[in-house]
Amino acid sequence: MTNTQDTEIDADEAAATRAPAARQAPGESPPSRPRGIGPFGWLRWGWRQLTTMRTALILLFLVALGAVPGSILPQRGQAPEKVAAYFADHKTVAPWFDRLSLFDVFAAPWFAAIYILLFVSLAGCVLPRAVKHYRSMRARPPAAPRNLGRLPQSESYETDASPEEVLAEARALLRKRRFRVDAEGDAVASEKGYLGETGNLVFHLALLALLFALGMGNLFGYRGNVVVTEGRTFANALSHYDQFTPGRAFDTDEMAPFSISLDKFSAKYEVSGDKRGQATDFQARLRYRDSPDSPERRYDLKVNHPLKAGGAKIYLINHGYAPTFTVRDAKGQVAYQDSVPFLPMETRTYTSEGVIKAPDAAPEQLAFYAILWPTAVASGDGKQIVSAFPDALRPVVTVSSFKGDIGLDSGAPQSVYKLEGIGKTLQPIKGGQKLLKPGETFTLPGGAGSITFDGLKQWTSLSINHDPGRIPALIAAILAVVGVAASFAVRRRRVWVRASAGKGGRTVVQVGGLTLGHPTAEFDDIVTALRGPRDAGKAPAADADEDGADAGPGAAERADAEPGTGSATEPKE
Amino acid sequence: MSSADLANLSDKLMLSTVVLYIVAMVAYAADLGFGRRRRAAVEAPAEARVLVGTDGEPVADAPPSGPQDAPAERPKADWVRLAVLLNVLGWGAHLGVLVSRGLAADRWPWANMYEFLTAIAFAAVTAYLVVLWRYKARFLGAFVMLAAVVALGVANIWLYNSVGPVVPALNSYWIAIHVTAAIIATGSFTVAGASTILYVLKARQEAKIAAAGGPAPSEDDAGFLARVPSSEALDRLALRVTMFAFPIWTAAIIMGAIWADEAWGRYWGWDPKEIWSFVTWIIYAAYLHARATAGWKGRKAAILSLVAFAALLFNFFGVNYMFSGLHSYA
Question: Would you tell me which CATH number, out of the four given (3.40.605.10, 3.40.50.720, 3.30.310.80, 3.10.150.10), belongs to the domain A144-198+483-569?
Answer without folding.
Answer: 3.30.310.80
